Input
Amino acid sequence: MPYADIERRILEQYFSTVDGPEHADIYLVRNLPPEVAATLNGVYSRSSKSMRDNFLERLKQGLAAAGRTLESLEVADQPRDLLSAVMADKSGQFLKTYAIDHGHNSLREGSVVHLAVERVSQLVTRFLQRERRCSFEESSTRYISFGAESHWRDPDVIAAGGDVAKAYDEILAATFALYTDASERLLDHLRQLRPLQAGEKEGPWLRALKAEAFDAARYLLTPAIQTKWGMVCDARTLSGMITELASHPLAEFRLVGERLKQQAETALPTLLAHGKPNPFLRDLHARLPAIAERLGFKTTPVHHGHGEGHTTLLSFDHDLDARLLASLLYEHARQPLAHLVATIKAMTEGQRQALLHEVLSQRGAHDDWPAGLEGAQPFEFETMLDFGAYRDIGRHRKGFQQQQALTTVHGFAMPPLIAEAGLADRYQQTLVRAAELQQQVAARFPLAAGYVTPFAFLQRVRVVFDPRQVAYFVELRSGPEGHFSYRKVALDMFAAVQKVTPLFAQWIRARQGEAFLGRMENEQSADERRLRRMKAAGDA
Output
């Protein structure tokens, strides 16, 4: 049945196409409050009508309940919350019944919010950004200089007062003072070391120098430093995040959880009902550290000085090459996986190499790895690396990662540039003192001590990636424009893969080379690449 003129005008505000084709009728849903959009998704499974028709039907019902008609709407001039006003009861009841009472989480996944999170610590940021189902964009320690006033001071530590509060504040003051001084000293050193060359543009040259300087200076930042980031998240995931935060022992985490819920509920008044403190999670926060202490798992020799990071391969698929080929061919075969694996294992090394070449040789510079490469057992690594580098590695959420509680007992990394610029002695003295004071804080407040554990200190992290993710990680993070510390982790991972599965490793494009020059080349060409992308977008 054709739409009336008023119906058509209303639909055009919220759907990109009103009259679609007979087949593959695809249209953009826009300008709808998140819970109204979730309702429309939800009724698909219980209605033969299109989303546009369901929208009109529910809108008419809401208006009728308010004694109004479609003609009474001035759609073009109405704010989005008008729809909530006339459809909220219907949407809210539907969502309460199915998403909350009956546990239909797919409906909660249909409501998405975009939140800006500002003036929160790096500690709570890392905790939240472990979530794999959200999209995050954060301020960079490479391109932004931080201010001394932007540190979080844990209220429990400050309330305790005395030596522990004094130690907390002394770490923040001393490390940040050196961070500020080092940022300038390192930049001056790089200007002398790598002056502007003929034919180079000054803007990209200075960006490369600043990135190099900040990459080294950031080792003196602490997780108490406040940052900001944007987050796009569905209601189901957000509810779980709020529950985790509300159940956490640290005051800032609980505060962030409360604020997230307050703000998100303005758009999702129904769907965050389960976002609240959870007794089981609270119990685990107390019980697991106690068990680890009882079993002697929390004792370790204290290393006060300069330490070196390293990466160890813990486990891998011993039939990886055969299993990867079998996984790539599985969807196109008729035999069980075990038969495919056994057949490929019986081939010679040369035959397997020829098969992989046949499959992968046409992969372009920006082509994704085939999804079938996820079909083998994962690589499991344990790495000791500085917290600053882990902030970047932790963004690779397509996998499993575990980080032990922040500590100073493993020693600290020293960026080569710090020593080259003549700052090594002051750097070492500052961090040795910070380690002593951090241990004082940790004796009474083991979790809050994480706030005053400078980025330079080594931390133990477990990383479990499937072969596809390992290949992606190595190719991305070994780039010469990247941070030297996570480049080392990527190249160490690659070396480990080469030893145990050289056939697969042949196809991973690890990028060796000197980092600084690679970064300079990347910055010098960045403006041209940006202009080409803008032109291509304009032409499109």
